[in-house]
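pinned: reference chain
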Amino acid sequence: MLTVFFDINISLPITDPTWIFFLVLTIILFAPMVLERLHIPHIIGMILAGVAIGEYGFNILERDSSFELFGEVGLYYIMFLAGLEMNMEDFKKNKSKGIIFGLLSFAIRFGIGMWSCLKLLNFGLTTSILMGCMYASHTLISYPIISRYGLSRLRSVNITIGGTIIVDTLALIGLAIISGMYKGDTSSMFWVIMGVKVVLLTAFIIFVFPIIARKFFLNYSDNIMQFVFVLAMVFLGAGLMQFVGMEGILGAFLTGLVLNRLIPHVSPLMSRLEFVGNAIFIPYFLIGVGMMIDINALFTGGQTLKVALIMTAVAIGSKWIGALVTQKIFGMTSNERRMVFGLSSASAAATLAAVLVGHQIVMENGERLINDDVLNGTVVMILFTCIVSSLATERSARKFALEEKLQFSSNKGDNEEVPEQILIPIANPDTIDNLINLALMIRDRKLKRPLIALNIITDNKNIQERKQQGERNLEKAAKIAASADVKVTPVSRYDLNVASGIIHSAEEYNATNLVIGLHHKAKIIDSFFGNLTEGILKGTCKEVMIARYLVPSTSINKIHVAVPPQAEYETGFVKWIDHLSRMSSQLGCQIVYYAEVGTLKYLKEVVAQFSACSLATFEEMTFWNDFYRIKERMQQTHLVVIVCARRSSISYDTSFERIPSLLSKFFQDNNMVVLYPEQLHQEELHRSFSDPLRHNEYQHYDKAREWVTDLFKPDDNIANKK
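pinned: its structure tokens
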């Protein structure tokens, strides 16, 4: 009966592109659900799924040209993301130790791996060198565990991350050189010519790519255009590397490293890059790898099982030895050694790249440089190293977290800090992008709390039109944050006055920080900040950031911070430094603090506690508001942050009365954030006789001003009649 309505003609393997793509998407969709229950690492699960549906499994799908295409794209994407997600500030923090660990680890693993291939597996010299590079590399597959426990600032973590850059770069260079040997001439001039080409191309990628990318991001803020541009840069780097006879994955990895500072790790662009890679390209690539594996060879005896066991033992053993030597050299504890071993023991991205590239190289005798036995054994090795890495890292992280919790409990006072909550009043559609991005950069990612976007509707004219515009603004804010995988709580509020509405909303939602746009002066008689901003500052003790961006906030590449005397005595001193450190870390840009000698001492002590300390520099100023000195160093993509103080604060001085005129004089055409630190909690503020309930008197001034303006404004209807 079915054959009457449907032309059913099913034969295996399936070759129709539509059904191939459907089945691959189905695997990508449902495999993680099953793998999570079985506690199998995602990367291994996709490979095993490929084994099951491939030629050596149930022979459901044919490995057609789509797997070739997506396989190439996925391989480049893995290496690109590996470079893009490297935390360069963590590397700089323990740069010397990271370099030593990287070189030492590479030497130990390369030496043991090469020896095992020569002596135990009887491979040739070239194959053994390539296998040694494969053993030396590692993938930070268990780093999400560190993020979950909030331990990214540990010395052992920073050293391992720094070493990862070294070992992966050396391994990829070794792979590219061996690959280049089989693509070109191997005469006496081969090495000289290859060396020159690699050095010139590497210099071109490192120095020219960031200039091109920075100009593009500065002039084009469209999310789709930025995404397509980044992909084009990745394949340009890979293509250029192939053009000079090297392996394209080295170009993709270098492109990720040089774009690292230009793409904030918490940004819509970064989320899109990770989303597309993790949703399509990388799973497609991993499934394609699995379809090449003959898993039956492991159980039929012979060389394959022997190769798999030796590879697994050498990979885990050499990395444990590397961690042990590192512990002895740097005087680490046993748990730090376990952390180094856990993070560095997994082999995945670079290992797969090395094996696949070697498997595609055919030597003069007709044999593959990496044979099928090694290809099959690599899957087993990756499986066990990922499991060992996850278990070791989890165990070490849990112990560090317990120690940190005990220390925190013993030092914690009676007053417990209020969880961070950022409130963003929005009104101007043109400033929403930059305000949301600023909030994304300063928020604490570990808390995973949503942002609050606030729209105030007053009882003025055109209330229905303002309501609709406010709803569109809230929707836009939610979309921007959602693209960075951050939730937004939209709040629309009716109030007689915008300032009082913001203040009351901040109290109702327990907001700890306010991010608002800088008032654009309409008349000379207006104050620099405007009545709205001044009313907010008077009515709340929260930290307030007043921002004005003339370029996209994600294009900032240097931050200048002017800090007044006695700022260290303010309640929110540490908090605002933490926020600026997060911003600097996300942007990967230098941050310069300008202050008088007494305040500079405290600044250095506090900044040293945060992850972006390696990006911070300090300059002594005789007068903190010597803005001419800062103005001389300002560029189009720089941001100046002026730390101010409310009238009732400790650090307030009469010189603050001149701040608006100085800002108008020196920074009228620059990106600027005026920051008011948090003061005492609201219930601790003293209520004066003239303002017992801390009401905002600006609502009365606004009403009077609007009444006078309407009184003398010509009637539009009369003018039209005339």
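why pinned: The mean pLDDT is 79. Residues 549-684 form a domain with the Rossmann fold fold (CATH 3.40.50).
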